[in-house]
Amino acid sequence: MPTNFQGVEFPKPPNLAITPRMIAFAAVGVLAVGTVITSIYTVPAESIAVVLRFGEAVAEVESGLRFKLPFGIDRIQKVPVKRQLKQEFGFSTPGATNPAQTSRESIRETAMVTGDLNAALVEWIIQYRIVKPTEYLFNVRDPAETLRNVSESVMREVVGDRTVDEVITIGRQEIEAEALVKMQEVVNRYAMGLMIDQVQLKNVNPPRAVQSSFDEVNKAQQEREKLINMANGEYNKAVPRARGKANRLVLEAEGYKTKRINEAQGDTDRFNALLAEYIKAPEITRRRLYLESMAEVLPQLESKIIIDESAKGILPLLQLDSGKGQ
After folding, report:
1. Tally of CB atoms within 10 A around 162
2. Which residue in 114, 125, 213 sits closest to 165, CA to CA?
3. Rounded distance, CA 40 to CA 184, Å?
4. Domains of the chain, each with CATH number or no CATH
5. pLDDT digits (tens, 9 = 90+) for 244-272
6. d(CA 77, CA 313)
C-alpha cells in the first residue's frame, strides 16, 4: 500500500474507466434535458404568444402550457393583448411599469397653438389595447413610440382647429371624440394592430408667463356672463309681466267693445220697435212715450207745483225763500 509522508497507509482508489458508451448516455441525457427545457414554455392568461420560426411569425398561441421546437428553432414573444395600456402626455403617474407610458419631453409635447393663435399647455391621456399581436410586433419598428408621435400629431391638428376658449371649456368632449377617430384612422393605416379605446383631456392651461393675464380675462368673462344672466333674468320677469298687462288691457277693451256693440244693437232694436208702433198709432205712442218719460223724470224732483194754465199772479203765494233755503 502507498504511504504518505507520516507513514500512514491509505487504500488505493479503484480504477474507473470511462467508456464510449457512458459518454453516449451522458450526451443523450444532456440532449434530452435541453430539449425539454427549451421546448416547454408558459403563456400568461393576459397574453398571446407569437411563435417565431427562424425569425418568421408562424403562429399565435393562447395562454397556458405550450410546446415549441427546441434549441432556438422556435422563439417566443409574449404580447399582453388583454391588458389595458395607456400613454400620458404632459404628466406622469408614479410607479408606471410601461416604459412608453410617459415621455421626458412633456413640456415640448404639450405646448400647442390654438386656431385663434393663442398658446396653451394641453395634457391628455390615451388608453389602448393590442388586438393584432403579429402586426404590433413586425409592421412598425417601435409601435409604442410611434403611437406617441401619432397621438401628439393628431392632438395638435385638432387643437389647432379650435379657439382657446373651446379647448379650455366647451369644446373638450368634441376634441376628445375627434382625436379618437383620427388616431384610430392613422393606426389602421399603419397596420399597427392597436385599438384606441379612449382619449381624455386632463389639464388645459395657458403658458405660465401669461397665466395671471389669462385668469384676469376669465374673471372678466365670468363677470360678463353673470351680468348677462342677471339682465336676462330681469328681462324674463319684466316682459311676461308687460305682456300679461297688455293682454289684460286688450281683453278689457274687447269686452267693452262687445258691451257697447250690444248696447247699441239693443237701442237700435228698441228704436225700430217703437218706430213700428208709432207708425201704427202715432198719437197713442206719443202719449205713452211722454208718460214714460215723466215717470222717469218726476221722481227725481224734490218739489212739484201743478197749476192751471189760466192762473196768474201766483208768485206771492209761493214760498220761494224757503225753497231757496232748502
Report:
1. 19
2. 114
3. 37
4. 22-79 (no CATH), 85-206 (3.30.479.30)
5. 999 999 999 999 999 999 999 988 988 88
6. 147
Backbone angles phi, psi at 186, to 5 degrees: -65, -40
Q: Cell numbers at residue 237, please?
A: 320677469
Amino acid identity, residue 36? V
C-alpha closest to that of 68 among 106, 92, 100, 42: 42
Answer whether 0.85 is exceeded by the pTM: no
Which residues on adjacent β-strands are paired with residue 41?
66
Spatial distance between the Cα atoms of 277 and 164, rounded to a whole number of angstroms: 90
Gap between the Cα atoms of 109 and 153, Å rounded: 9
Is the pLDDT score of 8 beyond 50? Answer: yes
**pLDDT tens digits along 58-101:** 988 998 888 888 888 889 999 999 999 999 998 888 877 777 88
- Kind and range of the H or E element at 40? strand 40-43
Where does residue 110 rank: exposed (0-12), middle (13-18), buried (19+ CB within 10 A)? buried
pLDDT value of position 299: 78
